[in-house]
Specification:
About 40% of the residues lie in helices and about 20% in strands. The protein has helices at about 15-25, 40-50, 70-80; strands at about 5-10, 30-35, 55-60, 60-65.
Amino acid sequence: MKSKIRIFTSPYCIWCNRTKEYLDSLKIKYEEIDVTKNKKAANEMIELSGQVGVPVIDINGNIIVGFDKEAIDKQLKKLA
C-alpha cells in the first residue's frame, strides 16, 4: 500500500519546519503544500481540519493539526 503524506505549510512557520525536519530525519517522503501560494489547497486544509493555522498534516486521510510528534508517530506506525 502506498502511503500518502501531505503537509500544509507556510514559509515562515517554525512548526512546519520542525515537522518537515522530523519526517526528513525518519526518511519519510511527503508532499509539501504552501497554503500562501495555493488558495484551493488552503481551502481544502480548512475543510479537512477546521483550522486556519499550519501545519496541518494529512497521513492517509488522518488529520493532525500542529507538530504533534506523538500523533504523527501513531499514524506512521499504522503505515508500517
